[in-house]
């Protein structure tokens, strides 16, 4: 069954409820929440998507996340996805949102950050492999491994955001 999402405008205001499949097919904006997970040593969680997932099977990702359900905030969606995909309960911190035009269709992307335990238990239906990388290691991996389009865009903005904060 296709999930329902809120179609939003270029100001992130709700226009109505549509199926995610239709939003992607029509190129309608909708909300997606992702989280960059760090451990206490500042390493970043990277994972490879399962071959069974419908979008970007087998590609690597820097962030964990998915579409926001109807009535769900970015933070609620990020927390739900973190629990579903990695079995972790954590309070995500929304850093910023932007219209992401990479990937299957344009969407508002809410980028979060959380410090999580390094012992995660990924859902094998979603995650085929995971590991913790330092920022330099991740920089090399982004050039060598096949990542989702969102990973490149979201992570470069994430690094810019963190650098601006320091």
Structure characterization notes:
The protein is of the alpha+beta class and 166 residues long. It has 4 helices and 9 strands; from the N terminus they run ββαββββαβββαα. The strands form 3 sheets. A 4-stranded mixed β-sheet has the order 6-3-8-7. The protein starts with a strand and ends with a helix. The model has no long low-confidence stretch (mean pLDDT 93).
Features:
single chain; 28% helix; 166 residues; three-stranded antiparallel sheet; four-stranded mixed sheet; alpha+beta
Task: Show unreliable segments.
Answer: none
Estimated helix fraction: 25-40%
DSSP, total strands? 9
Largest sheet: 4 strands, mixed
Average pLDDT metric = 93
Integer-rounded radius of gyration? 15 Å
Query: Which structural class best describes the helix and strand composition?
Result: alpha+beta
Query: What is the CA–CA distance across the termini?
Result: 44 Å
Q: What is the N-to-C order of secondary-structure elements (H for helix, E for strand)?
A: EEHEEEEHEEEHH
Shape: globular
Strand content is 25-35%
Give the count of helical stretches. Answer: 4
Question: What is the strand arrangement across the widest sheet?
Answer: 6-3-8-7
């Amino acid at each position: 069954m296709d999930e329902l999402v809120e179609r939003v405008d270029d100001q992130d205001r709700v226009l109505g409820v549509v199926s995610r499949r239709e939003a992607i097919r029509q190129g309608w904006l909708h909300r997606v929440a992702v989280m960059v997970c760090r451990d206490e040593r500042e390493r970043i969680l990277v994972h490879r998507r399962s071959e069974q997932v419908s979008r970007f099977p087998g590609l690597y990702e820097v962030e964990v996340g998915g579409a926001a359900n109807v009535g769900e905030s970015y933070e609620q969606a990020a927390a739900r996805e973190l629990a579903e995909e990695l079995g972790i309960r954590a309070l995500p911190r929304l850093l910023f949102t932007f219209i992401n035009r990479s990937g299957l269709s344009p969407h508002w992307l809410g980028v979060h950050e959380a410090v999580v335990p390094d012992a995660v238990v990924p859902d094998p239906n979603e995650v085929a492999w995971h590991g913790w990388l330092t920022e330099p290691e991740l920089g090399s991996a982004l050039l060598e491994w096949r990542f989702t389009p969102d990973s490149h865009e979201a992570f470069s903005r994430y690094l810019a955001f963190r650098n601006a904060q320091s």
